Amino acid sequence: MEDLSLALVQSDIHWHEVGANLAMYEEKIWQITEAVDVILLPEMFQTGFTMEHESVAEPMNFTTFKWMKQMAAQKKAVVCGSFIVKEDGKVFNRLIWMQPDGECQTYDKRHLFRMADEHHHFNMGEEKLIVEWKGWKICPMVCYDLRFPVWSRNVDLNYDLLLYVANWPAVRVNAWDTLLEARAIENVSYSVGLNRVGKDGKDIAYNGHSGAYSPKGEQLAFSEDKECILMLELSANELQSFREKFPAHLDADKFDIKV
Predict the structure, then answer these.
(1) Catalytic one among 28, 43, 58, 86?
(2) Which among 144, 139, 147, 168 is positioned nearest to 48, based on CA atoms?
(3) From the candidates 28, 69, 86, 109, which is the catalytic residue?
(4) Binning pLDDT at 50, 70 and 90, where does residue 1 land?
(5) Nearest to 136 by CA among 97, 98, 162, 156
(6) What is the Cα–Cα distance from 142 to 95, expressed in whole angstroms?
(7) Residue 230 backbone dihedrals phi, psi, to 5 degrees
(8) Tens digit of each residue's pLDDT (9 = 90 or more) over 2-41
């Protein structure tokens, strides 16, 4: 297990314009000149957070999926973000974990944002995803999942890094900041969140606040309200050292989740 480098692409999103967004993100990704292990894109990165999925949902192995596969191969890094997928008569807000060798894993958003009627338009995910990359165990989730600590509970240190990709509005950004830090502390892991900026097609404003937190709750990186690529490196030695000195996970409550 070596140090892990990440690039968080904090950006505005063209409303419902898949082609324009893919072109924009491709340009931004190629601005990353240093070697990186994981490139993060926001929730619904090629449309914005929309319930109007009829015109923008894609099947797997279609335009956006193939684009992610190409970007991962060319940059020799994982490319991770969510987009709208239609499959077997269902629609999912699906996170794709695309590796440079073309292998991918998926996570369907578990907690659907009912204040925007997401639960009426999308199907709920039923399984967490924990992937292994560069010796790290990583648990990626999507936006509203951040509010639910039971779902993200790090049982028996099953993961080292908790990742969130989001479209989290500026009006509630204080909760985003607080919960990202809390998830790191309570799970004795790193917690990293990527949010977007700008306004969407519903005139909802987003102000970024993408950031990273250590298991101690220390802020390791933070973005301002602007388009940027936030680069950070997570220390494997510091994580392991802290877990040895402060093994709070050994006193965690045991429970089962009913899905």
Answers:
(1) 43
(2) 168
(3) 109
(4) confident
(5) 162
(6) 7
(7) -90, 115
(8) 999 999 999 999 999 999 999 999 999 999 999 999 999 9
Domain spans of the chain, in order of start = 4-248
Rounded distance between C-alpha atoms, residue 35 and residue 3, angstroms: 12
* Active-site residue, selected from the candidate residues 118, 139, 143, 181: 143
Residue-level pLDDT at 139? 98
Is 43 noted as a catalytic residue in this protein? yes
DSSP for 79-101, written as a single string: EEEEEEEEETTEEEEEEEEE-TT
Predicted TM-score (pTM) of this structure: 0.96
pLDDT-derived band of residue 255, with 50, 70 and 90 as boundaries?
Answer: confident
3-state secondary structure at position 18: helix
Q: Residues 6 or more apart from 257 whose CB is under 8 A from it? A: 150, 151
Predicted confidence band at 155 (pLDDT cuts at 50, 70, 90)?
Answer: very high
Phi, psi of 252 (to 5 degrees): -70, 150
**In CATH, what number does 4-248 get?**
3.60.110.10
pLDDT of residue 71 exceeding 90: yes
Most distant CA atoms of the chain, gap in Å: 52
In this structure, which amino acid lies at residue 14? H
C-alpha–C-alpha distance, residues 80 and 96, integer Å? 6
Q: Of 178, 221, 78, whose CA–CA distance to 138 is shortest?
A: 78
Q: Are 232 and 8 in contact (CB under 8 A)?
A: yes
Q: Express as a percent the part of the chain with pLDDT over 90.
A: 97
